Amino acid sequence: MTFADHDAPAATSPEERLARLGIVIPPPPPPIANFLTHVREGNLLFLSGQGPREPDGHLHTGKVGAGVTIEEAYAHARLTGINLLSVMQSVLGDLSRVKRIVKLLGMVNAAPDFGDHPSVINGCSDLFVQVFGERGNHARSAVGLGSLPGRITVEIEAIVAVGN
């Protein structure tokens, strides 16, 4: 779904769009190792990779294309996008400060013969367009890997341009 398909007027805030989508932003997930969840350099915010962690801490695991369907992995990428939004909101205080989603790197824990990585990472990309409208359109890479930390299905990192 693109933002144009959504019924929220373009003038609404990201928070209003989230409410219309029925999404409640949880507290940011803690880092799982020795790194920061984000680094801000000037007007760029670099978000470390997040995974499909539910608010209760449950992580979705498995291999996409071998036990995990594209539809399930799409939902996991959407959940990962919500976790990225959580970090953005925690850092910026207001998602209206997002000037643009610049770039995503989406990694899929995929079976060796799986080849539809873009359809999985669309779960996050579609969410960002729904929440930010045109400012949510971004450059992106979607790659398959032999494994991810904790056997999670997807991991996504982001670069965000920040306004005042």
Please summarize what this structure is.
This protein is α/β, with parallel strands linked by helices and 164 residues long. It has helices spanning 14-21, 70-92, 117-132; strands at residues 38-41, 44-50, 63-64, 67-68, 98-109, 139-145, 154-162.
- CATH architecture heading: 2-Layer Sandwich
Helices and strands, in N-to-C order? HEEEEHEHEE
Please write the CATH class name.
Answer: Alpha Beta
Quick one: biggest sheet? 5 strands, mixed
Strand content: 25-35%
Show unreliable segments.
1-9
Number of domains: 1
Count of distinct strands: 7
Description:
The protein is an alpha/beta fold. It has a single domain, classed as RutC-like (60s Ribosomal Protein L30, Chain: A), CATH 3.30.1330. 29% of the residues lie in helices and 26% in strands. It has 3 helices and 7 strands; from the N terminus they run H-E-E-E-E-H-E-H-E-E. Strands 1-2-7-5-6 form a 5-stranded mixed β-sheet, with helices on one face. The protein has a two-stranded parallel ribbon with strand order 3-4. Helix 2 runs parallel beside helix 3. The N terminus is likely disordered.
